[in-house]
Amino acid sequence: MEEKHIHEHHHHHEEEEGQGRLTKILAATVLLIGAVIIEKYTDWATWQYLLLFLVPYLVVGWDTLKEAAEGLLHGEALSEDFLMSVATLGALGIGFMPGAETQFPEAVFVMLFFQLGEWFEEKAEGNSRKSIAHLMDIRPDAAHVERDGNLVTVKPEEVTPGEVIVIQPGEKVPMDGVVLDGHSSLDTVALTGESMPRSVHEGDEILSGCVNKSGVLRVRTTKVFGESTAAKILDLVENAAENKSRSESFITRFAKVYTPIVVVLAVLVAIVPSLITGEWATWIYRGLLFLVVSCPCALVISVPLTFFGGLGGASKKGILIKGSNLMDRLSKLQTVVFDKTGTLTEGVFEVTAVHPQELDQQELLHLAAHVERHSTHPIAMALLNAYPDEKDSCTVADIQETAGQGIIGTINGRKVAVGNSKLMETVGAAWRPCHHEGTIIHVAVDGVYAGHVVISDRIKADAAPALAELKATGVQRTVMLTGDQESVAAAVAKQLGVDEFHAGLLPAQKVEQVERLLSAGTLAFVGDGINDAPVLTRADVGIAMGALGSDAAIEAADVVLMDDKPSKIAAAVRIARRTIAIAKENIAFAIGIKVLVLLLAVLGLATMWMAVFADVGVTVLAVLNAMRALRA
């Protein structure tokens, strides 16, 4: 809450500053027009005109002069405020040199236009921050806690894990927890970018940052506010800008070297030809133009703003990119490696075929479900789901589980074995292979083969289109790694059109495969993050899928996809490429125009007005271009 207040206060302060700047610009413009009219129709001494133009100059330029002076005191001489101050004060002074024209209106105009550009940049940056502030919508304001039989409203930070909170319809979920009672649907759009509501019931996990839509929920909290999903995501987005990309750090380094060189060149342009020709006023004026043009603000402002916009645009779509340095890597992806279960497939097993031999289908499922009723294995769950009404009058006894084979139990006096082909051989039943793809569960009754059930993992609906899209963005190889058996992996790989696959891998072997592929160019690994942390860290770009609620994934990955859609990967690559392209356009455009006007300045063909356009105009255009990155 505190932070939110500070954030709002800061925002308010910025708005006031922007308003003040605009007022000064308008006032100075009116005063400047007045001064120009007076100059045209009067015949005063030069110093009287100087006083006249100093009024609008100081109204609009006082802040800049102050910043420049402070910069000098702190040893930061070469700021753009300093360059602007020298150039405009120089232009004001030229009029007093023998044989020189007065440049008073130009000097005021340069300062005016510089301030207008600054105001415009602030507006643009404010807008791009606002678009990221939509993420701030996930920051909860308060939590209602049950304490001593009463409901108390406190700040989310004051709730300890294990306390019970009540969430009314329309409220944000303040912290992660488990639903004790009530059922509702949650709007997760702020976290995932997905508009489909999720339903929650008793016993379900619930994540902070979602909005409770319909029912009242009582929730036992499991984490402190700072560890909750919403807090972690906000933290990620706010810090993303600190991981500078190569283009950004290049710009900072460039400005440090570039500015001193330009100042030296400007001094040389002013002094050397003047010593030769004696035309001091002309060459000092050209040197001043050189200073105005050479301000690197277009680059210093627009490039980071472009990345900021790209990161914000991606987060709106539920794609969190942890830094602009990853934009560079994403845009150059050549190999994408997928984990199979939970990434390309749903990780939900279901019965896809039943082939009975002696009994009918229902009877076969009925016996299998009875034997598997106490197992927590995903395959057992699939059997139970296929035959849910197993609470009947049958007696179940002597359940024995053999690891790696299956389960044997006695049902109504008959000995039923449910498992793989090894178990069938153990009980002496003549099993039959099946042509269906998936995990085959054989059933034998009293040592006689009774048939089998096929269980398989569903492939995600958008997995195949997602792989095709990746190919279309220029990714050269797609690879699937899985711990599953060869035949199942081959079927999935064929259905999805993956370039290569490796099956039967342990987590350590997945890391080995990634190491081997790393030599072939930039590599991304996509996993669901539960057991993939080592591989996510090893890849050039680790992408965690469906990371809602998985802390390990959010920590280990570079790019976090908040929902389970593989198609978001191609979207992330497209956003990265677009962002990098916009940054490059800005660099080329800004440097090109500046070099052109610098040449014109030295040749005496440029005026103060052109110099101002080359600086401020270019910055404004570059910032407008950078704003395009926001629209993902």
Essential attributes:
632 residues, alpha+beta, Calcium-transporting ATPase, cytoplasmic transduction domain A, Rossmann fold, seven-stranded mixed sheet, six-stranded antiparallel sheet, 54% helix, 18% strand
For the largest sheet, list the strands in their spatial order: 10-22-21-20-11-18-19
| SSE class | alpha+beta
Contiguous runs where pLDDT drops below 50 for at least 5 residues: 1-8
DSSP summary: helix tally: 21
**Roughly what fraction of the amino acids lie in strands?**
15-25%
Distance between the termini: 30 Å
The total number of structural domains is 4
Report mean pLDDT, rounded to a whole number: 84
Main beta sheet, described? 7 strands, mixed
Shape: elongated
Portion of residues within helices: 40-55%
Question: Topology of this protein?
Answer:
Elements: H1 2-41, H2 46-73, H3 80-94, H4 104-133, E1 143-147, E2 150-154, E3 164-167, E4 177-181, E5 184-187, H5 189-192, E6 198-200, E7 205-206, E8 211-212, E9 217-221, H6 229-240, H7 246-277, H8 280-294, H9 297-316, E10 319-321, H10 324-331, E11 335-339, H11 340-344, E12 345-356, H12 361-372, H13 378-386, E13 396-402, E14 406-411, E15 414-419, H14 421-427, E16 439-445, E17 448-459, H15 463-472, E18 477-481, H16 486-496, E19 500-502, H17 507-518, E20 523-527, H18 533-538, E21 541-544, H19 551-556, E22 559-561, H20 567-603, H21 608-627
Parallel strand pairs: 11-18, 11-20, 18-19, 20-21, 21-22
Antiparallel strand pairs: 1-2, 1-3, 3-9, 4-7, 4-9, 5-6, 5-8, 10-22, 12-17, 13-14, 14-15, 15-16, 16-17
Helix pairs in contact: 1-2, 1-4, 2-3, 2-4, 3-4, 3-8, 4-9, 4-21, 7-8, 7-9, 8-20, 8-21, 9-20, 9-21, 10-20, 12-13, 15-20, 20-21
